[in-house]
């Protein structure tokens, strides 16, 4: 006898949550603003931080705040989201950060957080061979060298476990193009780890 699993999938839960979030924002509810920040603040920060990786934290913070303001203004005015809400939020964060990138010229270091999962995807042996802090620093450096949209693709795929479909909508590329960039990026990361002696052949 086949037992059907009626439990909602992660994607279904996220879609239902996003529908509720959109309803709350369109009612201009303060709770909607709080939920937007709670659910997507981390992703917005990661995208803005990496697009503006050579700029100081104040500029990154300004870009994050501008992203939330743009989202609130558009969505509360019943702006029609042509793609799913997650992709629209990611795209807005990226576009806002790129606007700031064009505006400012100063350069400084920014922090990149949460690379541990990406390290595990590349090789489960990494943590056993070097300290996690050392490995994160190396991955940080490799990601900083990536051009857009590859940085955004890596962030969404390996830090936020987004689908290729959502990522493709965010960066305006075809899904097979995104998959190709992910493969190339992982090869580049692994090659750099091998070169630095973090991984063994």
Mean pLDDT: 78
Unreliable runs, pLDDT <50, ≥5 residues? 106-114, 123-130
CA-atom Rg in angstroms: 18 Å
**What kind of sheet is the major sheet?**
none
Query: What general outline do the C-alpha atoms trace?
Result: globular
Query: Helices and strands, in N-to-C order?
Result: HHHHHHHHHH
CATH top level label of the largest domain: Mainly Alpha
Number of helices in the DSSP assignment: 10
| N-to-C CA distance | 47 Å
Total DSSP E strands: 0
Structural class: mainly alpha
Helicity, in percent? Answer: over 70%
Strand content: under 5%
Looking at CATH, which topology of the largest domain would you report?
Rna Polymerase Sigma Factor, Chain: A
Counted up, domains total 2
Secondary structure topology:
Elements: H1 10-26, H2 30-51, H3 57-76, H4 85-103, H5 116-122, H6 126-129, H7 132-145, H8 150-159, H9 164-171, H10 175-195
Helix pairs in contact: 1-2, 2-3, 2-4, 2-8, 3-4, 4-9, 7-10, 8-9, 8-10, 9-10
Structural write-up:
This protein has 201 residues and is mostly helical. The protein folds into two domains: 10-103, Orthogonal Bundle (Rna Polymerase Sigma Factor, Chain: A); 116-195, Arc Repressor Mutant, subunit A. The chain has ten helices and no strands. Helix 4 (85-103) packs parallel to helix 9 (164-171), helix 8 runs antiparallel to helix 9 (164-171) and helix 8 crosses helix 10. The longest helix is centred in the N-terminal third of the chain and has 22 residues, at 30-51.
